[in-house]
Amino acid sequence: MYFKAVVISLSLLLCLSASADELKQNIDSTLQKCKMDAVSTIDSQNCYIKATTAWDTELGNQYKLLMKDQHENVRAALRDSQRQWIKYRDSYNKGIEAFYQKEEGTIWSLIAAESKMNIIRDKTLDLYRLRNSTNLGG
Prior knowledge:
It comes from Enterobacter mori. It holds the Pfam family LprI. Residues 1-20 form the signal peptide. Residues 37-127 form the Lysozyme inhibitor LprI-like N-terminal domain. The chain has four helices and no strands. By secondary structure, the chain is mainly α. It is flat and about 50 Å long.
């Protein structure tokens, strides 16, 4: 019985990972293509702006889907959690800016942009996984 539960749990995790991979593939692929086509730092910065906007839009979509059909106490807890995460994100973005501003060279603005984008990307995938974690049917 224990073995069966482990197999089912592992299968569920693999399904969630595969689906999360599909979720991120489109935005990440578009970003990669944009960076490959970029001929200047400004072009690359614009790639990150577009990708960050796309991830932020998807974050909103995942949040709405997660909140849908939840009991009020769950919605309140998730809403409070998301508000705290937004404060964290904003504060961390300021830290990223301060950290990379002291460096010389244009590459650091791109590294900062990617770091800030990844915060949103990771949260989007977390919300997706949370939303789908109770879907045992696959």
